[in-house]
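Input sequence (358 aa), recorded before submission:
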Amino acid sequence: MENIIFNVEQFKRNILTKNLNILIGSGVSNPAIPLMKFFSKDDKGMTVSKEDANANLENHIWKVSSFLLWEHNDRIKYFVENMDKQTLYSTDYFTELKNFNTFENNIGFVLERYVKFLEKVITLLYTSNSRTVSKSVSIFTTNYDLFIENSLDLLMKNENFIFNDGSNGYFHKVLDSSNYNKSVAYRGLNENYLNELPSISLIKPHGSMNWEKGENNQILIRPYVVDQPVVVKPTGLEGQETYLNNHFHDMLRVFQLELDKPQSVLIVVGFSFQDDHIAKMVRRSLKNPELMIYIFCYADSDFEVIKNNLSLDNIPRNLQIVIPTALESENKNILNTSGNFDISSLTELFIIEDEEVK
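Predicted structure, token format:
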């Protein structure tokens, strides 16, 4: 069937009353981390090998993730220490300083977007009725960066919620998929009631910049960026690599189990399904009639790309691939996408008014 018109009221009802899952792709971390095609060429515009492109991407994500955890003075120190003397004492220094400022500003810009979105997610969880749906959300991301972790850490200063990164331990945090099967409740001082706390589970099937291989093939989650992070490189064989590795397979199994649950919703942003393994899992999950999937395209042209990557001849009733122009034309008073849909656009859709809760 044809893609049906996006109904914002129905969308808000679904995210309030169903088990909420969010899939975040690399587009959400742009421009701090450009898309893969940016790294496929050198400074002269010549195409580089896939190995070099992957290395360039990973180095860039390492640098961005490190900057997220450093204070401004530490960033300046890194900038100066990694500059050769010839550049440091020439007019090229000012060009490099301008590039540094742009790099730092892009990180701040993207971080602010993540924080605002996740803040709305937490508000949504507080709004939902725990008697009908769990006050929890599962966030899946193929990104290695630490934007989500850093955003949630900032929000914890003023918000009361549980952040579950799948780890167990204190000084030595070990990743274990069984740790996602938890819920936490606040017990009254007189033990006369239990109130479920909002919970955010972060599942990273492609690894993270702060994951390090430990003994007995354990994955340790560090509070810093590690030199040799445990990640699945975007080689075009992500599905095979992910499937063969027990830890990453466990992460994807959690993803599949969430999509198989009754009364669930999956929201996808910044992701075009070039990962064949995840595309197959989503296509399979469409057989669950109680699952609703919303895929938000960054641009109208992404519609056919996503449809082809999902190998869909027709769009089933429980899937909506939403394009920016159609979304804006139907919801002029709510949303202004300016032709592109990004995480800030999704943040606007997550704003729930009091009358919409009733």
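Checked by second reader. The longest helix spans residues 92-127.
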